[in-house]
Amino acid sequence: MRKIWFGSSDITGSGVIITLEGADDASITPGDLISLINELRLAGAEAMAINDVRIIHNSYIAYRTGRHISVSGMIVRAPFTVTAIGNPTHLYSAILQGHHGFRYRMALDGKAVTVTQSDDVQISGYARELRFEHVREGL
Fold first, then answer.
1. Helices (runs of H) and strands (runs of E) counted in the chain
2. What's the rounded Cα separation, in Å, for the pair 56 and 75?
3. How many CA atoms within 13 Å lie on the side-chain side of 54?
4. Residues of the chain with pLDDT under 50
5. Rounded distance between C-alpha atoms, residue 70 and residue 102, angstroms
6. Residue 122 and which of 12, 45, 53, 111 are 20 to 30 A apart at CA?
7. pTM
8. What are the b/e assignments for 54-85, b being 16+ CB within 10 Å?
9. What local confidence, expressed as pLDDT, does residue 39 receive?
């Protein structure tokens, strides 16, 4: 269970697959991806990845070298595919919530969001070594 919690093992489960596309490769911003990840967390996502880069407790999303987007130091490119494991109905509904949902806000900026529910979402384990300075096993 610890490997799942820290994101170091491959996992599978039901959830959603979300694709984000803009007018050009630079249309989607780190803020768009952060907003989506936060909405999925609030909806109960138990695990997530962006273009096969696992999101873990200390992941970050930012611009790197111009307009390229980095997820935890790894460059990801459009189109962006976000996979999330959790209750598919809750995750799906959170993204499509009428005028308050992520998809609606993205459409206002001319960006397309496609959401698909799936019983077989696969997310790879975090590919880098996890390092902790202050945490140690105990009890």
1. 4, 8
2. 16
3. 26
4. none
5. 21
6. 111
7. 0.88
8. bbbeebebeeeeeeebbbbeeebebebebbbb
9. 95
Amino acid at 1: M
Q: Which two structure tokens, joined as six digits, stand for 29?
A: 């911003």
Summarised one tens digit per residue, pLDDT across range 29-59 is: 999 999 999 999 999 999 999 999 999 988 9
* Token pair belonging to 74: 């790894």
Question: What pLDDT is recorded for position 14?
Answer: 98
Domains and CATH numbers, the chain: 13-123 (3.30.70.1880)
Helix, strand, coil in percent for the chain, rounding step 5: 25, 35, 40
Structure token digits, residue 37 = 């990840």
